[in-house]
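Issue 218. Parser rejects a valid record. Input:
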Amino acid sequence: MRISNERGQDLIEIAPQAKPPVCKILDFGKFKYEQQKREKIQKKNQQVSLLKEIRLHPNTDIHDFEFKAKHAYNFLEEGNKVKAVVMFKGRELAYVEKGEELLNKFIEKVQEIAKVETPAKMEGKNMSVILVPSKTKTSKKTN
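Output the parser choked on:
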């Protein structure tokens, strides 16, 4: 404590349970500043992955399907997850296999840049599949 007072710095106890306790002499304000700076840099470099949703219907036309597939492709290139949902209304529930075919076609359209995280499954009146960007394509884009 005497040495830290002479230097005008703080005495910080690192390991109080050790015998003898381990202490360090340093400027605590400067230490906190550098720690905040490191955390800010880590936060800046961290990648946030969003879940984007693409909604389709069993009777979605070819042009609309291509348009939505192109949007999904762009989302995946940006590093976001994509949830493709086929929404059934009324009697369309009798043609669930048509929606499944549509999702399989959708997966084939984006398979070069994405992989399936959760396979197609029914959730009430909706059938959905979640796609995530494959590591190889996204890493080339960021470099």
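Fixed in the parser; the record now loads. Helices lie at 2-7, 28-45, 62-77, 96-110, 135-142.
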